[in-house]
Specification:
The chain folds into 3 domains: 9-87, 2-Layer Sandwich (Phosphorylase Kinase, domain 1), CATH 3.30.200; 91-278, Transferase(Phosphotransferase), domain 1, CATH 1.10.510.10; 308-342 and 356-546, outer membrane lipoprotein receptor (LolB), chain A, CATH 2.50.20. Helix content is 35%, strand content 23%. It has 18 helices and 19 strands. It is globular. Residues 343-354 have a biased composition (Low complexity).
Amino acid sequence: MNGWTVPGFTHERELGGGTSGRVVLAVDDPTGTKVAIKYLDGALAADEAFLTRFRAAARPLSQLEDPNVVDFYDFVESADGAAIVMQRVDGVSLRRVLAAQGPTGPLAALSMLGGTLLGLAAAHERDIVHGSMRPANVLVDGEGNARLTDFATAPAGTEAQHGPQYAAAELWDGAPATPATDLYAATAIFYECLTGHPPYTGRNMARQHREAPIPADEVPGPLRELIHHGLAKEPDKRPKSAADYLAALEEAAVSAYGPSWEAQGRGRLTELATQAAQQPEPPKPKPSRSSGRNPIVAGAQGGGGSRARWILAAVAVLVVAAGGAGAMTLLNNDDKQPPEPTPAQSSTPQPTLPAGGVDPAPLIARIDQATAKAPGAAFSYRQTGCCGFPVTGRGTFGLVQGASPSYTMKMAGTGSARKAVQAVVVQDRLYVRAGKKWRPTQLGGRGYPAVADQVRQGSSVANLTTLLRSATRLTRSGSIYQGEAPAAKLAQSPGIGPMYARMSQETGAQQIAFAIKFDAGFRPVKFWVRAGPEKGRNQTQRGSYSQWGRKPAVKVPR
């Protein structure tokens, strides 16, 4: 590190290190938020081919938001070196769990593989390949989520050496890393969770991956087909995608262990991670071209360019709770700021403005006008927090005059709805693709209908205008409006009221904090909403919009 510190951060302590660099716990000076920073090894920082490749990966990584991927914040380069700023997550690496506890058992192993495949599916959709999957790069957090970190940190051509026990045969032959090699590695990790050791060990790893029989006999019978499929020698004989593999996993798990397999597996994985964290850290393995990831706090690789791209998602809580002018300024680096909305002239007495002095009425009018002229967009939406709250959705929507928006999207939730599925929402009907058929059902209730309803409510423009209209505090900094609204008032709002009633009841929150960013035409770009304290029992929504003006043809599928 040569004494270099990424500007704007204060180091607290070193967390770990390896051949690719050292990881430190640091504090973002403007906000007080703790992050993990990896200072790349001098050889990597001087490898222009690697840096060029990583710069290209940084932007899509910064846009990757998924509960099973550790957030990537920034990639910083200077004359002194290069560093990756990443989310600081409380948890332990799967490597530490396996070293401390041994085999996890089939239910926890299935839960781990399910989370890993969800993270890979989200990454592969953005053409992001991990390249060096191994247990050190799978973090188990306090809720039993398997979260992936360290995407694209192995220089091209060295992927096999970075994780030899998990490297598919084609990597040893010099082929580039692909989604198929990621699925191979995920299966090898799954195998290790089941048996306590990787499928191939010892000398001549390349030959074993190329020629040795797949040792599926060591795993429980109902799971052997998953092992055979994922560890196939030829890439085209492996699952076609992470989503396809996940569907096969769920079918096998339900058949073998019943519909509650996921809840039981997640609980067991949480228990094992908690026990591992309480034990002394095992000695580091002998150097083997591994990444040397920190076993306690893992971080995803960084998002290209300015820290502005992650402040809203990661520290908007501080923006709202403490004013956060510095962080909000960072958000205003890539869009023209919208002009101040002009209040309507009227001879009638004007209502009392929210604390902060911003009148929401002209702002809401401008938003309604802008979105009416661009009645469709691409979107991403994510919910995190307590009480079975995690939900994700990504796709396009179309605004319908006098009706709820229609969506076509890929979504996932918790429990039986955890597998990502393709869905269409038209009026109050949900259509979920199952194989070659679409299954229609009514929105609401449990499972996928509840997930779709939550995505539609939370990501709607009506949700944002309701927050602004209900605000008791509202301030503006450039293109960002931040404030608070009473949960009780929001709970009475048509359409989205039940959503805020649940958030308030489950977290005990009396106030809902929010921050919304707009483009120069008053169309929303990003938003963040939180019920509950920053630490403890809370629920958070965040989302983004792009490509305003598109008119997706959202029709009832046949």
